[in-house]
Amino acid sequence: MTRNIIIDTDPGQDDAVAILLALSSPEVNVLGITAVAGNVPLALTQKNARIVCELAGRPDTLVFAGCDAPLNRPLVTAEHVHGKTGLDGPQLAAPTMPLQDQHAVDWIIETLRAAPANSVTLCPLGPLTNIATAITRAPDIKSAIEEIVLMGGGFFEGGNITPTAEFNIYVDPDAADIVFTSGLPLTVMPLDVTHKALTTKPRIDAFRAMGTEVGHMTAEWTDFFERFDMEKYGSEGAPLHDPCVIAYLIRPDLFTGRHINVEIETKSELTLGMTVADWWRVTDRAPNCTFMGDIDADGFFALLAERLARLG
After folding, report:
1. Domain locations along the chain
2. Is 102 exposed, middle or buried (0-12, 13-18, 19+ CB in 10 A)?
3. Is 82 an annotated catalytic residue?
4. What is the pLDDT of residue 226?
5. Domain 3-308: assigned CATH number
6. DSSP state of 198
7. Which of these is catalytic: 80, 82, 103, 241?
8. What PANTHER family would the database entry show (predicted)?
């Protein structure tokens, strides 16, 4: 059965690979892509989303620009990881496909109000500002949401922007708190999983060996993206965070996790944005999400290579 999804994103090389995976997979139907400020400012994330759709040969995809800043805080970006454009590496031409006029949040609300109950899965790959704004402004849309599958957080791996916080949650912890306390079905891909999905040389070579523009760009993007993490972690490659969200929708058997309680820290100066995961169930707080802990990395990269090879 095909799942209708909305991808909410702040591309980002790993976001780009996630979009390519979704657009090459018949198991998911991308209703639209909503851009949010995160890895780079909104003017670049909406542009990058369109660049990726054109690379995939899907200029018919609807792309909307959403919130340009977190709910209550100044924007923190990650050019130090993704480069000044967010998609540094080889330069692609500016997109010619249109950006839709409607604000992303308005479109999310309109689309979900028109959808049957439990029929749309939201796939946030960046800060949760757009999603939190939509469900706060229009709580009635919750009935249409089958599940939210997001990349964010970390527990055993700690944080990647502060000692305790993962970037997406840290940028807008208030939005994350709204989503995690929404009562909606939630599946979380934290750093604990994504740090096991590393772009090793053989895995990048497999993209390059496709001999297509998509394969070449994916290899070049991951080459650029991994230099930062390899230096930081001393690892043999970089974690491919965001494609884990789409891979889960296609092959949930690649992942294992637990249904537990996760709370978002919004007040502490020391641990702002921390995802406090009750992995060992030591509190009586009710479980609110499925928090993934492991991935079949070889299966994940085999899926990526097989699907991306379908694009041009």
Report:
1. 3-308
2. middle
3. no
4. 67
5. 3.90.245.10
6. B
7. 241
8. INOSINE-URIDINE PREFERRING NUCLEOSIDE HYDROLASE, URIDINE NUCLEOSIDASE
